[in-house]
Design a protein that fits this description.
With 214 residues, the chain is α/β, with parallel strands linked by helices. The chain is 41% helix and 14% strand. It has a single domain, classed as Glycerol-3-phosphate (1)-acyltransferase, CATH 3.40.1130.10. It has eight helices and seven strands, in the order H-E-E-H-E-H-E-H-E-H-E-H-E-H-H. Helix 3 links the parallel strand 3 and strand 4. The chain is globular.
């Protein structure tokens, strides 16, 4: 890790563990080197920071373009490997950036397959973008489930615990047969969400409903 990123990582981990009782399981599944896609559910603005802390790797992620128009925020998130994306649009430049991060920089990339935050905690329908990026880069896809990042106040009060669960990666050989156009991309995206759903059920068997994917 670069020095500034490492400093932010250590600070975040201390806050998450002492303040929010962060629990991470499955960290042994995180590739030690090279590029991969970390595919995670999305329930709170702080999810990228928390997931990056849990992975213990220097990670790149996408942030909405409006944040890059705010002077102090822009400089900070750029140094933390954030890249802009315009929500609600087919941002081809952002997809090219994702491919470049994985293929040329060989760095991990955090993506949220649903494309937006869930306000209910339920897993939503995934978009095909993650599958298209995987098709162009052929990197492992690491499923991640984050819980209670939208209830940090209750974590502080010891009513809940901040949890991150990491599953076994889907290797390129595991999903290569699905990379056959729009239908195949959609199926791969659903497979990824299904793996996140497995982690959700393991972490919180009695949690509210989740997306069921065949």
């Amino acid at each position: 890790m670069r020095p500034f990123y490492f400093l932010c990582y250590v600070s975040t981990e201390v806050v998450c563990r002492l303040g929010f009782r962060l629990s991470v399981k499955g960290r042994e599944h995180v590739p030690k080197s090279g590029a991969f896609i970390a595919a995670c559910n999305h329930v709170a603005y702080f999810d990228p920071v928390i997931v990056a802390c849990a992975l213990k790797r220097e990670v790149c992620f996408l942030a909405r373009a409006e944040l890059f128009e705010q002077f102090f925020v822009k400089d900070l998130i750029k140094r933390l490997n954030a890249f802009p994306i315009r929500r609600g649009e087919r941002d081809i430049s952002s997809i090219k950036t994702c491919i470049s991060i994985l293929a040329e920089r060989a760095m991990p990339l955090l993506l949220f397959p649903e494309g937006t935050r869930s306000t209910t905690g339920r897993l939503g329908e995934p978009r095909r973008g993650i599958a298209f990026i995987a098709a162009q880069t052929r990197v492992p896809i690491l499923p991640v489930y984050i819980e209670n990042s939208n209830h940090l106040g209750e974590c502080l009060k010891l009513r809940k615990r901040l949890r991150v669960r990491i599953g076994k990666p889907l290797e390129p050989a595991d999903y290569a047969h699905l990379l056959t156009g729009r239908e195949g991309y959609g199926e791969l995206a659903r497979v990824v969400m299904s793996e996140i759903g497995r982690l959700k059920r393991a972490a919180s068997p009695h949690a509210p409903g989740h997306l069921t994917v065949a």
